[in-house]
Amino acid sequence: MKSRITIIAFVLLIASCTGSRRHLNIETKEIDYVNKSEFVFDGTPLDIQVNGLNEIMFCDSFLVTLLTDPENMIQAFDSKTFECVAKFGHVGRARNEFSQYFNTLEKMHYRRNDKTYFPLIDDGSVIKEVDFSSSVQNNEMVISTIRDYPIFAWGYNRMGLINNGYDTVFCSSEVEQDPVRKHRNHAPKYYIYDIGKQERTQIDVYSRVMKVKNEDYYPPLYYTRMYKHPQKNIFVCPFFNRDYMFYFNLDSCQYFAIHQTGTESFDSKLSEQQILALQDRLCFTSAEVTDDFILVMYLGGEDSKQHESVLPEILLFDWNGNYIAGAKLEKEVHDICFDKMNSKLYGANFNEEIIYQFDITAMIDRWHESN
């Protein structure tokens, strides 16, 4: 009888521990950044032609536009005169052409041997490294490296290059389907993937997947983007529909999340109506990174909701997850990039095909004061 009571107590203890497990296996830092912006910046429209505008970057001293034009997919503008100094990139099957419109690895670019490069994803699973310096000089696309990455076809929806190289990558998956039950009941996974050895090391982020009635609700609960520190192997993943950002420092093996205090969390018990509301809510939509900080476009504040057009905020975080400053933008923009030498932020409005320039020196000065 005594042994039977002991077994029952043990089972109840296990059940209790399982039920109280936290959703995240990584540390969560509660911080406060919503409705804290103290700066307001108005933008000046640039007098440039950007038909088919789809993304913007800032490389070296050039404002770079990525277009849907099959004959001129990339344009480079001098950041002082805004004269278009180069147009290159075509649809085709040659080495220096693209089979369809490409995507960047979230504006990732880097220096090597006194030249600037950035990777572009072609045809869903091929990465072509653009020699940007030579492309501008020659006014034609120069591709330095081509690598096939079938991991995109295997369900990995986000990827960054470790050591700014192509042999090892950091990647994340979607919510995965159980092969037996045929249900999407595995939370997204994060991996360090050695391409040559076909070996992967998992970073254990989620203890379980959130329970929802409709499996179509999963994507908004977990959707992130991935940005890499320009020099270090630190990756930040802002959530599109939730007040979370994940930090992964692969150099020091330190992983944590930051979360807006007082908002719903992964441990919150959400009703179906609350989950549906999350699908319509926007939080972090675009970002730009420097050696020192992260600039994130944010749409979750009260001010963004009070206008007919969506006016975003720009929030500044350091690489330790600390909120430094915020600013309201007086123009509707959907993508950003940053000229760190002149403290100029560029914002692209895709609907009107306009690029605005914002002088955010006052906010950058706040970062200098904090250091």
Structure description:
The chain is mainly beta. It is 14% helix and 38% strand. It contains six helices and 27 strands. The strands form six sheets. Strands 1-20-19-18-17 form a five-stranded mixed beta sheet, with no helix packed on it. A five-stranded mixed beta sheet has the order 2-24-23-22-21, covered by helices on one side. Strand 5 (62-67) and strand 6 (74-78) form a beta hairpin.
**Tertiary shape:** globular
Question: Alpha-carbon distance between the termini?
Answer: 66 Å
Indicate the proportion of strand residues: 35-45%
SS content category: mainly beta
Radius of gyration: 22 Å
Model regions low in confidence, pLDDT < 50 over at least 5 residues = 1-19
Q: How confident is the prediction overall: mean pLDDT?
A: 87
Number of helices: 6
- Helix-residue proportion: 10-25%
Number of extended strands: 27
Please summarize the sheet with the most strands: 5 strands, mixed
Main β-sheet, spatial strand arrangement? 1-20-19-18-17
Which terms would index this structure?
371 residues; mainly beta; globular
Outline the secondary-structure elements.
Elements: H1 2-19, E1 27-31, E2 39-41, E3 44-45, E4 53-59, E5 62-67, E6 74-78, E7 84-88, E8 103-104, E9 110-112, E10 115-122, E11 126-131, H2 132-138, E12 143-148, E13 156-161, E14 168-173, E15 190-194, E16 199-203, H3 218-222, E17 227-228, E18 234-238, E19 244-249, E20 254-260, H4 272-280, E21 284-289, E22 293-298, H5 302-305, E23 313-318, E24 323-329, E25 335-339, E26 344-349, E27 354-359, H6 361-370
Parallel strand pairs: 1-20, 2-24
Antiparallel strand pairs: 3-27, 4-5, 5-6, 6-7, 8-10, 9-10, 10-11, 11-12, 13-14, 14-15, 15-16, 17-18, 18-19, 19-20, 21-22, 22-23, 23-24, 25-26, 26-27
